[in-house]
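Task 17 of the worksheet. Students: predict the tertiary structure of the chain below and write it out as structure tokens. Keep your answer in the requested format; marks are given for formatting as well as content.
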Amino acid sequence: MKELICPNCQKAFTVDEADYAFIVNQVKNLEFNAEVERRMAELNDRHKANEQLNAAKAEKLHQNELNKKDLTISEKEAAIARLQTQLQNIEEKKSSELTLAIANKDKEIAHLQSLIKENDSKIKIAVMEEQRKSQENIQGKNAEIAQLKANAELDKQKAAIHEKNIKEQYELKLKTAQEQVDYYKDLKTRMSTKMIGETLEIHCSTQFNQMMRPMMPLAYFEKDNDASSGSKGDFIFRDFAADGTEYVSIMFEMKNEADETATKHKNEDFFKKLDADRRAKKCEFAVLVSLLEPDNELYNGGIVDVSYRYDKMYVIRPQFFLPIISLLVQTSKKSLEYKQQLAIAQSQSIDVTNFENQLLDFKEKFANNYRLASEKFHKAIEEIDKSIDHLQKIKAALLGSENNLRLANDKAEALSIKKLTRNNPTMKAKFDEARG
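Model answer:
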């Protein structure tokens, strides 16, 4: 770009290379024409001066001849004729030189005019080419802007759909959770502390009879009504093989209390009694199904193994009631063969040391497998929490993306030729010429 100073307002303005070259050519053409006219005027002045000089010389010669008294009239006439001849020769020579000079100048002028026309054509072609390129550039920008608008609109629609799906999923989960909360709140307000515990027992009993009973026809699952030992649990579960061999047994205790209860119990308050009930009723496992300590993350994480305090004891929330039965049943079935062989060996008075070792080995492996399963379960819960947190971040990012898309759309809507040509008078003039 070139910077020029306006001779009228003395303000600086910029022009591109093509416009600058055009202006320079105009100035050169004007200067050339002025130079040609000046030189023609000089030639004419010189020609007139030569004529006057020649006339003066001739007059002087003539006067000199007249002053010669010794010349005869004939000599004077001859001298006059000679002088006239010389003067005519001089005039012819000067006229020939002038004609030749004029012809050369005319030829040079014609050549320069031809160059001027050629330059004018080139300038017009260059201007037209620049206009064409500018128009193509404008069309390309318009197409690009249109594409950006379409892409932004498409992205916005996708983001809206995705956000709607996420929102619907969250609303569905929230609605389900709220329904459960409302159900339990309503249930608690209508029941005493004792009735709340009995309702949990009914819930677990119903779950077992509906889901597990068809798959375990030989299983025993009833309330523990035997208080002969001075204490009793809530439910006893036992299952048997086809030959009647018992391979798994569980003592269940169900605990819950109303929110208004003054003295809040903890899960560990019932461990000792539950272990005593398990041993008294000769059950292999003990399970506390509890809604106590609702804010305790340890018990909210899944199946909690508390065998480090009481042998083969677990604490669960009601939603893990059926899974704990399935887990203990499946693992205990693996020891069924050993128990059957042990029973046969005992009935035949055979040394059972090997079978007891195998049974102990199984128990150790079971405990290890359960520990690994429990760790993986906790890990799965953690991953679910991370996924929920990740979805929250995605939602926040989508909301931020929508805002940026809106700003981008506003900027695209506000884009115009007027703004593109601001502070660029050359491009503005070309756009105005192209519109004209």
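Marker's comment: Residues 73-189 form the longest helix (117 residues). The longest strand covers residues 246-255.
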